[in-house]
Design brief:
It contains 1 helix and 4 strands. The protein is α+β, with helices and mostly antiparallel strands. The protein folds into 2 domains: about 70 residues, no CATH class; about 50 residues. The chain binds zinc ion.
Amino acid sequence: MPNVEHELVDALASCKNSRCVGYKQQPVKAIRTTAEYTYIDLGGDLPGVERSTIMFGFADLADAQCEHCGEPRLVSDQTRPIYPNISGQPQDALLAIGQDSERVRDLELANAKHEAEMAQMQVAMERMIIANERLMAQLEEPARRGPGRPRKETAGE
Ligand SMILES: [Zn+2]
């Protein structure tokens, strides 16, 4: 059996989701559980501790949940490291890959819609030109017959 100790300690809690507002580490009270396995525990005959494990748990269960997104929070005694951006790539570049292709798809869709509208406009323009030519032909018809000729009489006159 390992030797187990519980201690109330100061620790840091944070949301698991790096895009959540609760991702920033906050000081909380935690219970540190240390389990020590001696050589004798593990079947040996040397004195002393062969290995030990340390676990952290929230002292107050109200701290265990992220207040922003409701996900379970992490608790640790270590400050999260901040690494310098050596690559020059934004940290969320991988997340943005899908959005880029989505944006391109949206643009292509908008372009296709625009082209379809243009094609419809062209058809409408051609129809208008044909209608215009017919109207002009009808207007020119009496002129070809020459002046002085009486207009077509309607039934009412
Ligand atoms: Zn969260």
